[in-house]
Structures are given as structure tokens and as C-alpha cells.
Amino acid sequence: MTERGDVLRLKRRLGFGSGEDAERVVVLQTSAMNSMLPTVVVAPLDSSTELFAGQPLAVRIPAREAGAEADCVAVCSWLHTLRADRLEPGRIGKLRARTLHEIDDRLRMVLDL
């Protein structure tokens, strides 16, 4: 089962991200909903950390959490709802609670919660 904070790869590109790497996303939807719904709310991870430096709605994700070779950023203003079958099976990374808390802070700004 997919859990909140899991980093997954997309089967097909959505058009965000840079480079030739498969696009990575972080699951933001609560784990309980992931088992009940055919869709998943995610934010893209982008490897262009310099492009998003200083952006208030981007959170830097360490490479080890992102399952990547280099640090990424979670772009919290680019939320997507995807069918779960658009994600490759198996998690490639897992965000720590502290990193998820930073994302939650940005989501509160984006969604005015």
C-alpha cells in the first residue's frame, strides 16, 4: 500500500521536472485514503534546486529521502491528482517526518488552511 511521504516514479511523464530522469512524486494524501481511493494526491519532485532556491512554496528534499542521486525540491504549488495505476510499483524513497512537516506548512499556505 502507498503511504503518505512515499516517493514514487511515474510510468509516463507529466511534463514537469528536468532532465531525462523518470519523474518522481511524493504522496501527500493520507495513507488511509490511499487504500480507499483509485487516485492519489502528489507533488512533483524537481531536480532543479537552483531554479527554486528561495521560493517559498518549494521544500528541499535530501537525495537519500528522494531516492535520487542529488537533492530535489518538492514543488508544493504544483499539486496533482493521479490515478494510482499511473505510478510505478514500489517506493524509491521515503520522506522523514520533519520534511513532511515542512511540506505541510507550505500546503497550508497554498490551500489557506
Task: Give a description of the structure.
With 113 residues, the protein is of the alpha+beta class. The chain has one domain (6-111): SH3 type barrels (Roll), CATH 2.30.30. The protein contains 3 helices and 7 strands; from the N terminus they run E-E-H-E-E-H-E-E-E-H. Strands 1, 2, 3, 4, 5, 6 and 7 form a 7-stranded antiparallel beta sheet that branches. The longest helix has 15 residues, at 97-111. The radius of gyration is 13 Å and the shape is globular. The mean pLDDT is 89.
As a percent range, the share of helical residues equals 10-25%
Strand content: 25-35%
The CATH class is: Mainly Beta
CATH topology grouping: SH3 type barrels
Specify the number of helices.
3
Number of domains: 1
N-to-C series of helices and strands:
EEHEEHEEEH
Low-confidence stretches: none
Biggest pleated sheet: 7 strands, antiparallel
User: Any idea what the CATH architecture is?
Assistant: Roll
What is the gyration radius calculated from CA atoms?
A: 13 Å
How do the strands and helices of this protein lay out in sequence?
Layout: E1 6-9, E2 24-27, H1 31-34, E3 39-46, E4 58-61, H2 63-66, E5 72-75, E6 80-83, E7 93-94, H3 97-111
Antiparallel strand pairs: 1-2, 1-7, 2-3, 3-5, 3-6, 4-5
